[in-house]
Design goal:
This protein is of the alpha/beta class. 32% of the residues lie in helices and 17% in strands. Helix 2 packs parallel to helix 6. The termini are far apart. The model has no long low-confidence stretch (mean pLDDT 88). Keywords: Methyltransferase, Transferase.
């Protein structure tokens, strides 16, 4: 029997195939978990944002910076946009021409599998882990995507849902 037919790339080969420059802001795709409940999810989303070339928009809750720092396993600066007013921030992004997409179980939601890669500036809004996107923020959404589930759970946690949607919207999946 011969050796494995699959050759795994080395870390050096992987690094050399990626962007050659550091980014300060990619300014086209944002993950916006504006009502987070669990700090651990922020680190996971930060890692996904780096992987797909997205920025992270976060509220200035007192515990969020520490949770993000603790969860940042990359140990490199992240592209983070801070807001003290989540609804105001979303409204300003919309006024600037961004498409606002929520991950939510709504009648008008499109299945994530049926969504293509985004063109232009897009904000992916992720709701509270228990209550979803607040009703007053739903009016700011241009569309909703839904992640179908066949199990007994009603939803995925915000890090998993956000990661799936970011990969799909970025066109990497």
């Amino acid at each position: 029997m011969n050796g494995p037919a699959i050759r795994v790339r080395t870390p050096s080969e992987i690094r050399n195939s990626r962007r050659s420059r550091k980014h300060s802001c990619w300014d086209h795709l944002y993950a916006a978990p504006l009502w987070p409940l669990h700090g651990a999810n922020l680190g996971t989303l930060a890692r996904t944002c780096d992987a797909v070339g997205a920025c992270l928009a976060l509220p200035r809750f007192p515990w969020v910076p520490e949770a993000l720092a603790r969860g940042n396993t990359l140990r490199k600066p992240l592209c983070v946009h801070w807001t003290g007013d989540p609804l105001g921030w979303l409204a300003r992004q919309r006024e600037r021409g961004a498409r606002i997409v929520g991950v939510e179980l709504a009648d008008e939601a499109v299945r994530l599998a049926d969504v293509g890669a985004v063109r232009g500036k897009t904000v992916l809004v992720l709701g509270h882990e228990q209550h979803g996107i607040p009703p007053e923020a739903l009016d700011l959404l241009d569309s909703c995507v839904e992640i179908p589930m066949i199990g007994i759970g009603a939803s995925l946690n915000v890090a998993v849902a956000g990661s799936l949607a970011l990969y799909k919207l970025s066109g990497l999946m």
